[in-house]
Every structure is written in C-alpha cells, then in structure tokens.
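Reopening this ticket.

The earlier resolution said the output was attached, but the attachment link was broken on my side. Pasting everything inline this time so it's all in one place.
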Amino acid sequence: MAKHDVWPQQIWTARDLKIPIFLINASLAENSTRTKPLIKNFLNSVYNDFTQIYPISEEDKQRFNIHYPGCYVQIMGDTKYDQVVLRKQAAEKQNLLSERWCKGKFILVAGSTWPEDEEHLFPALRELLIKYEFIKLILIPHQPDEKALKAQKECFKDWEICLFSARDELREQRVLITDAVGYLAGLYLYARVAYVGGRSRQGVHNVMEPAIFGIPVLYGPVHKNSYEAIKLAENNGGVIVRNKEDILRWLDVFIQDADLCKEFGEKAEDFARCNTGATNRLLAGWKEILSK
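Inline output:
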C-alpha cells in the first residue's frame, strides 16, 4: 500500500492469511488527524499489523515512532522520485513540439493550474509577453474543460494562440494552451522555468516533474501537503510565490540572469536525483523477506 491508503479490513484479512503487507512512501504530517487521540487509538491496531512501514523521511519516521511505537519503521524514500526520472526519459523520446517553435525562445510552462493560481499568475505572464518578445507560454490547466480553456483564451486574446490538439499548426504563436490530458510531464521538457499549480485546493501538485528537467520551479504558498515542495525550496531549487508581484519579480530575475536560472535549475535536478533509488531498495528488501 502507498502513502495514506490504509484500509483496515484489507490489512486484517492479509494478517489472518499470513500475507506480508507493507506501507510504502509513508508520511505522517505533524498536524495529521492520524496523530489525534481518538483516531490514533483506532489506527494503532491497524498500523501494528503491517509487516513493515517505510516512511519517506527521517521526520516522518520519528513521528511514526512517537505516535505508533509498536510498528517496525524503516526509511526507504519515496518511489515518486524514480517515477519522474522514467517520465523524463519517456518525454525525451516523444518530440511533442517542433524545434522550430522552441528554438531561441524562453518558454514558461504553467502546469496543472486552477483559477486561484491564474488570478495571480496570468497578469504577470501578460506583462512578460509585452516586455519580452522572445517569451512563449505553455499553459496546462488542471482540468482542460471548456470553461477553463475559454478563460485562458480570453486572458491571452491579445496574442496568437494555438491549442495543443492543433500543434502541427504551430508557427509564430506565443501561447500554446493544452486541451488534452496526459502530456504535463512531457511538456516540462521545453520549459526554462515552470510554475506548478494547486495554491488553494488540495495543495501544490507534483513539483518533482519539472524539477527533474533542471529548471527553477515556482509554486504558491499552499504547499505543506508536499514534503518535496518544502525541501525543494529549502535547497534553492524551488521558489514560493504568494502573489502577482512575487511571480513577476522572480520570472524577471530568471529571464535576465541566465546563470542564476541555471543555478536554481541544477539544484532542482540535483534534489530530484539524489532522492532516487527507493524502488530498488524496496525490491531488494522484499526479495530477501520473501526468500525466507
């Protein structure tokens, strides 16, 4: 089982059938409801039936040890990092966009955005399009439905727009709006800087997807749901932006200072890569357990 998908009846059934059961990519936030007395009392009998629990960090391990001291807990890392490496390798083979459209341009990708993100992000992007002729945008709404696409088209109606489904027609358009799902990770390949959405819903989306491409990653203040977003900012690969002014200031800096942009990007990729390997560690551990 992964993350928080802890289903008591499933675990108890596995226990009764003597089937080993593991919780991978486990996390336990400081303010999690799973640390509250009533829920903790119930979950004690659930977590204790796991063969092993593998938290993603030392902080999470310590919290499991405090709140669920009867469990066997061992840090293995997060398989999410391995997945983004595989997605990057796949993206490099896809050739989603023509070299002609991208060459010599500073491309900003806004991935998985909600209206709450766009309220702050899009005014900043409009100013940058006016200020710099070499700027191009790839916009990827979290839900590319008719309402979201219409709003994005309206916001950037002063510039030529192309939909991703018609990307064969890309020529000089400065705004590409993605009207299909499943291409987010692949489109980060073309970015010089990325903004990741989710500022006021369930929290920021996957910041590792752009980080693995070696680019600075911007995201909003609602990111405590994401361990990697917190750590990425601490390692100077990610930037937390709270409003239009923050976004405009940081994007302006990265556009004008190529060395700083590269430095942030390298730190982002280093952070993503140094945390890989959880998948192989898990498989090696299970092989040893099952061989007995």
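Reporter confirms the inline version is readable. The two ends are 21 Å apart (CA to CA). The chain has two domains: 8-77+277-291, 96-274.
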